[in-house]
Amino acid sequence: MTEDTRPALAVADSNRLAYSGGGVPASAQARRARRWGWWLYAEYRLASMRAYLQTIALRAIGLPLLYLSSMGLGLGALVDSGAGGVDGVSYLVFVGPGLLVSCIVMEASGEFTFPVMSGFKWQKHYFAASASPLSPSQVALGEVVAVGLRFVVESAVFWGFLLLYGAITAPSSWLMIVIAPLAALAFGAPLLAFAATQNDEGFQFSFIQRFVVMPMFLFAGTFFPLAAMPPYLQWIGWVSPMWHGTQLARVVGYGMPNPPWLTALHVLVLLVLLVGGTWLATRVFTRRLTR
Q1: Which of 57, 202, 244, 290 is geometrically suited to a Cys-Cys bond with 266, CB 3.0 to 4.6 A?
Q2: What would the pLDDT profile of 148-166 be if each residue is shown by its tens digit?
Q3: What pTM, to 2 d.p., does this model score?
């Protein structure tokens, strides 16, 4: 089949579909887009991730192996022999939930920075989507949904490695598959709103990576209890979605003692950040795509 015959065949296939009565009228397609546009854009966004699927798979498999082997087993053996574990459990059991949450949260810093600028500046696919019946707010919401679904899959893979390494002791540990994406989106949704305000690439995203993401990773209770830190550094954990997510993951992972009111507070903080950040993102997308 030559390239010259392909357009003619595509037209013929479209005609046969229309003549058979199976074609969807344009008005019906528009109504569907106006109602389910956020999901249609999420489908497009998930399909576009196939361009770097190998990188996603490598991170999803490589990071659990690297972190659990080096931090959980390597450093964990030293901690267990010296201190007898942390919080009443082995260091591997303690650090495992924190590693899961921190890895997924840090993924959000990659998905909600330069790819967002690309949608406005380089590839301009946000403008293409908003030229259809999809509204700008649906585009923003679809972005959050698509990335969130990807995080659920990656969290499930990481959780599987936690099972394999014996880093899980509670039947409720599967809830980490939901908690980690929630924490990641609680950080990523406000970041999406901020990235959508940027017109040119400078040092903004590098600043966030160095002075927001890395301090969260190091000082938000991932590797040791927050109470072990000096009081003047503990605030980093209190305001960090990573810490709130890590605490919830430890509660369901090995039954970490936690008052019910504090567990509810962790969930509330994450939900407020997610909903508030998504709302801000829809406002910024609407302003930029309709002016």
Answers
A1: 244
A2: 999 999 999 999 999 999 9
A3: 0.88
